[in-house]
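Standup notes
- DV: blocked on the single-chain target, sequence here:
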Amino acid sequence: MNVPAPLTSLVRGVHHIAIVVPSIAVARKTYEGVLGLSASEPEFVPEQKVNVLVTYAGAQRIELVEPASDDSPVTKFLAKTGGGLHHVAYKVDDVATAIAACKAAGLRLIDESPRNGAHHTRIAFVHPSAMGGVLTELVQDTH
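- DV (later): unblocked, structure below
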């Protein structure tokens, strides 16, 4: 699948792959203990009502995402699928600029303006219907 034209000059690379899990504690045993990935400590992201554990496969980030409440955006996904690949996140220099480019191209967005993400990032989601069925996150590192 080709990246839609509005993103080609904005995307700097893959930021992370997000996997929804029912329990970070249980998943951590596999990702860290069996696969040998290094990991940070879990972070609660209040705006999304999730706990996030960042693991690293070399330089690539794999984020394990666990719902922190029944009304978390990933709770329905977990109930429906049992967990698994949730989204692909792309690194951008400026998430507001990326949102504007997507809007101008007519891409369907979930977020019309940037919001706070894990580890001091600014984020926005592009609807799966605009990205070949893949929920896509645009991530701006702010540190």
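- Follow-up: The radius of gyration is 15 Å.
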